[in-house]
């Protein structure tokens, strides 16, 4: 069972788009190691002959009629947005400053 | 205390039908009770509610009364007020999921469960407190402060739906809605001496339920009696084309199943006691009450056998890989662009900088732990060893249930290993917190229905424990029948409901 290092937690936080402070990293990394250690018991419990289950009650191909139904108005969809401009979501710059 | 707030929902429905009380009177009585016990200047209120909608509830109640006067009542619960867990979208009423990242968010639509409550005429009193995004077993992970257990204000009310359970236990609402991903309806029921039902996965629509783990989440009733839970389930359940995992079939009347159980006759019912859900870590007083209830079922005519479900010992580990994996994907939508909090760092930050700063500021510790854990479990190199294995364990757990239900009608266990612990006791020890859900998690992994009914007080601490009944998928009627039977047998023994033994809360 590989222990999860502070650096690894920092990397995972980057992947998950969360700015963790040094204090948070110090706090979370050992806790995550304990949790991972506890869940590691399942490694190797089920062999290749056991199929995985993604949903307990299997359903396939749930279709509906292709008809237009009313949805949210633009105003409703934008009502909770942090910033709105010209009936659109206004977001910070997406590209680097050099671009 | 007004007898209106002590009444069961079924009794209130009868009184509304008889015309000796109005929905406005009922709703006012509950709003007054909320005012008296929910928030106190000394900080020792129950704090079951994050939001109380006095005006909306009273307007709904007035409409209900007008309908009834015209002879157009929409069903037995028309006019009976209800509280809704803050994880279900309510149009025009803030929905925070107990998180700072959604502080003040007002949904532009209703969850299907909420639509059905409105269509059935139930005034919505407000939104109940919960662990942030339903991650927790104590309601202490709410960004808005914990809910307190009405039995002992220094103890946790369970979680994640501690607000809904405490609201009914403190007589602030006759009915509430909860959601159960790993036990968040049943475990709070156990530790507050109330009733909670997790329906079969797909039995109640998830549309408008802010997802924690899509393959596990299920909304259901939180009440003080089994009959009330059944009546509420009949209102909120059934197929919803807006949820593609909703089961498209007709369901039997759960109200009738509960009424049938109340006759206390368990003749011909085969009950399996799960051997794996006992032993080390299980509080003696909880086990003693459990064994007594099993004996009572035998006396009522049930045939009881021990049943082994060997893969259940791996359920907790599988759950704490599957849940974080699904949660980390679900919570990616909180990106500070379309709704919720936006934190803008200084300088000329990019969208990604804003996203990272917002998610750090908006999410609490437990949410961060689970997002990181889920991100890890889904990383290349670890996927097969963790997430893949967990999904296979899920298959093994379903097979255990199938094998058990080939021989018995229902399976039983204590709902939670202990009674309510003290606030703060396990807050920074995630594994200790996770162990609370040991007995409830298998049902979520396999999608089967389960109920927790009050099961008496543990000798060590005088606090409530719960009795869990599990049934095969789609056989929700069985948990109501057996749960109602045990409840009726207990009521006879105790001379009334367990909540009669709860201490009176101080009121302003």
Report the radius of gyration of chain A as a whole number of Å.
23 Å
Quick one: overall form of chain B? Answer: globular
- Uncertain spans of chain B: none
How many domains of chain B? The number is: 1
Average of the residue pLDDT scores of chain B: 96
Largest beta sheet of chain A: what is the strand line-up? 1-2
Helix fraction of chain A by DSSP (H/I, runs of at least 4): 25-40%
Q: What is the subunit organization of this protein? A: heterodimer
Under CATH, the topology of chain B can be stated as: Amidase signature (AS) enzymes
CATH superfamily of chain B: Amidase signature (AS) domain
What's the CATH class label of chain B? Alpha Beta
| Structure classification of chain B | alpha/beta
Largest sheet of chain B: 11 strands, mixed
Report, as a whole number of angstroms, the end-to-end distance of chain A.
43 Å
Q: If interface size is counted as residues with C-beta under 8 Å from the partner's C-beta, which chains form the largest one?
A: A-B, 56 and 74 residues
**What percent of residues of chain B are in strands?**
5-15%
Number of helical stretches of at least 4 residues of chain A: 3
Mean pLDDT rating of chain A: 90
Question: What structural keywords apply?
Answer:
heterodimer, A: 99 residues, mainly alpha, two-stranded antiparallel ribbon, 2 strands, 33% helix, flat, B: 508 residues, alpha/beta, Amidase signature (AS) enzymes, 11-stranded mixed sheet, 17 helices, 11 strands
What does this structure look like?
The complex is a heterodimer of chains A (99) and B (508). With 99 residues, chain A is mainly alpha-helical. Chain A has a domain at 6-42. Chain A is 33% helix and 4% strand. Chain A has helices spanning 6-15, 22-39, 74-78; strands at residues 84-85, 88-89. Chain A has a two-stranded antiparallel sheet with strand order 1-2. The radius of gyration of chain A is 23 Å and the shape is flat. The two termini of chain A are 43 Å apart. Chain B has 508 residues and is α/β, with parallel strands linked by helices. Chain B has a single domain (3-312, 395-501), classed as Amidase signature (AS) enzymes, CATH 3.90.1300.10. An 11-stranded mixed β-sheet of chain B has the order 1-3-2-4-6-5-10-11-9-7-8, sandwiched between helices. In chain B, α5 (112-119) links the parallel β2 and β3. The radius of gyration of chain B is 21 Å and the shape is globular. Classes of the chains: A mainly alpha (99), B alpha/beta (508). At the A-B interface, α1 and α2 of A face α11, α12, α13, α14 and α15 of B.
């Amino acid at each position: 069972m590989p222990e999860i290092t502070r650096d690894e937690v920092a990397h995972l936080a980057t992947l998950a788009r969360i700015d963790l402070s040094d204090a948070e990293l110090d706090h979370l990394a050992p806790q995550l190691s304990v949790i991972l250690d506890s869940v590691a018991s399942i490694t190797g419990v089920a062999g290749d002959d056991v199929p995985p289950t993604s949903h307990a009650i299997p359903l396939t191909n749930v279709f509906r009629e292709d008809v237009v139904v009313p949805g949210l108005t633009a105003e409703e969809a934008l009502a909770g947005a942090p910033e709105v401009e010209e009936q659109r979501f206004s977001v910070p710059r997406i590209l680097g400053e050099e671009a | 205390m007004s007898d209106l707030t002590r009444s069961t929902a079924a009794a209130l429905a009868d009184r509304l039908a008889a015309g000796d009380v109005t929905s406005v009177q009922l709703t006012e009585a509950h709003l007054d009770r909320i005012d008296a016990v929910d928030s106190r200047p000394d900080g020792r209120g129950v704090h079951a509610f994050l939001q109380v909608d006095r005006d909306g509830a009273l307007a709904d109640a007035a409409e209900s009364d007008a309908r009834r006067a015209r002879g157009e009542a929409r069903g037995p619960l028309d006019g009976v007020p209800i509280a809704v867990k803050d994880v279900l979208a309510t149009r025009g009423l803030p929905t925070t999921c107990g998180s700072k990242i959604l502080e003040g968010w007002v949904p532009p639509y209703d969850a299907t469960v909420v639509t059905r409550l409105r269509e059935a005429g139930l005034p919505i009193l407000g939104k109940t407190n919960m662990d942030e995004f339903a991650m927790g077993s104590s309601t202490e992970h709410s960004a808005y402060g914990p809910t307190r257990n009405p039995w002992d204000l220094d103890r946790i009310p369970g979680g994640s739906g501690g607000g809904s359970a405490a609201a009914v236990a403190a007589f602030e609402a006759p009915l509430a809605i909860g959601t159960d991903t790993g036990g968040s309806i049943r475990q709070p029921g156990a530790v507050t001496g109330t009733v909670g039902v997790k329906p079969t996965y797909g039995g109640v629509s998830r549309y408008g339920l802010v997802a924690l783990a899509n393959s596990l989440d299920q909304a259901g009733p939180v009440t003080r009696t089994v009959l009330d839970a059944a009546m509420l389930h009949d209102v909120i359940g059934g197929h919803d084309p807006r949820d593609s995992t909703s089961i498209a079939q007709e369901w039997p009347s759960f109200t009738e199943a509960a009424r049938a159980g109340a006759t206390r006759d368990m003749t011909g019912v085969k009950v399996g006691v799960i051997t794996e859900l006992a032993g080390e870590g299980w509080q003696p007083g909880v086990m003693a009450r459990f064994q007594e209830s099993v004996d009572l079922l035998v006396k009522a005519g049930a045939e009881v056998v021990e049943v082994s479900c060997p893969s259940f010992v791996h359920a907790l580990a599988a759950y704490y890989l599957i849940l974080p994996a699904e949660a980390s994907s679900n919570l990616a939508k909180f990106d500070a662009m379309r709704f919720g909090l936006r934190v803008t760092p200084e300088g000329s930050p990019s969208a990604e900088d804003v996203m990272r700063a917002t998610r750090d500021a908006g999410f609490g510790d437990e949410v961060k732990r689970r997002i990181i854990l889920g991100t890890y479990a889904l990383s290349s190199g670890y996927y097969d060893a963790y997430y893949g294995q967990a999904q296979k364990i899920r298959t093994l757990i379903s097979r255990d249930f199938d094998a058990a239900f080939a021989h018995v009608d229902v399976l039983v266990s204590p709902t939670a290993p202990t009674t309510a612990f003290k606030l703060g006791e396990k807050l920074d020890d995630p594994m200790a917190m996770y162990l609370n859900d040991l007995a409830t998690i298998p049902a979520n992994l396999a999608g089967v229905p389960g109920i927790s009914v009050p099961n008496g007080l543990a000798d060590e601490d005088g606090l409530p424990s719960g009795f869990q009944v599990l049934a095969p998928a789609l056989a929700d009627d069985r948990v109501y029948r057996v749960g109602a039977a045990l409840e009726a047998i207990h009521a006879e023994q105790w001379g009334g409901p367990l909540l009669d033994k709860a201490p009176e809360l101080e009121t302003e």
